Hints:
There is one protein chain. The chain is an alpha+beta fold. It has two domains: 4-190 and 301-384, 3-Layer(aba) Sandwich (Aminopeptidase), CATH 3.40.630.10; 191-298, Alpha-Beta Plaits. 35% of the residues lie in helices and 25% in strands. It contains eleven helices and 18 strands. It has a six-stranded mixed beta sheet, with helices on both faces. Strands 4-5-18-17 form a four-stranded antiparallel beta sheet, covered by helices on one side. A four-stranded antiparallel beta sheet has the order 11-13-9-14, with helices on one face. A hairpin with a 2-residue loop joins strand 1 (63-69) and strand 2. The mean pLDDT is 95.
Amino acid sequence: MLSAERLDDLASLQRWLVGRRARWLEALEELVTCESPSGDPGRLLECAGIARRLFAAEVGTEDIELRDEGGVPALVLRWGGREANSALLLGHLDTVWDVGAFQPRFDIAAGRARGPGVFDMKGGVVIALAALAGLRTTGGALGSVTVLLTGDEEVGSLGSRRLIETEANQAAAVLVLEPPLGSALKIARKGVGEYRLTARGRAAHAGLDPERGVNSLVAIAPLVAAVAALSRPERGTTVSPTRLKAGTRTNVIPAEARLDIDVRFATASEAERVEAGIRELRASLPGAELEVAGGANRPPFEPTASSQLFALAESVAVDLGWGPLQGCSVGGGSDGNFTAALGVPTLDGMGIVGDNAHAPGEWAELASIPSRAALLAGCLSRIWRGQLK
């Protein structure tokens, strides 16, 4: 039976979390040193095994399932059964780093841990571990909560999206374990789209008879500016040509050219406008053909999806004695985009404080683990008691 009085005692919970800092550091080091780049099922499976063992040891075993989603491991952990006021903690185990990219794989200096994925987002997995362990120890039995850790978030969640949406549809709220921006929670994210334009022409010798060819690079070149012109920064929409590739040799008229495009949008209507604009593009060079592939792969996470949970988190921050809690909107997408688009209340940025995601020197602030875990624990206890309005 959940004890409201014990769950409300956030001061005791935070003291307990602070007293266990060495344990959270051990867990973080173990997860980070198990390198798990996207697209490496074996290493992802090994990392999922470590996470499974850590949660079983610190929180107890109720229902743990290791799944295969299109060849990608996903770990599902449940406590408290399926109840009305259930919460989904959503995270991922894959990183953007190739094996061996960090030397050493894990080190600590000036209170900061460095290593592949320490900030994005193995630190978030440790935040969830600490929060649930603290709630179980200081608050009694856990309410209904599922932790879902996927293995392909960094490459678009193509295999795990259906599982994410299935779990979210059974939850009253989703708390995403991605890192905050500074210390600010992420209350909105742009949607993401990826497109590729392929111009096809005809190869020919560039010196002997270039007129027999159809230059695909010439055909696609004007489309770079046309694509960029679809941006509407004032609406939160960016359309960025990011990579152009053409040809095989300097003395051969290129038969094929490809242009990759990154799209970010704040609303579904903007995604539709950009989609229509890209689909209407044509190659103006006679004899050339244009193929358009791709589309929106993450819907926008609009602020309305997070407003209730952010208000709830603000109340937790007050009880913890913090100053005003900050929220922010960001351009990058996460799996929270999928859950927000379903209409399930979603709050992002619940993970560890740090910086340099996807960049050399990625780091996480070790001192932030107890406070971020206390914030997550406070949000969970209020969700379980039906305070999400």
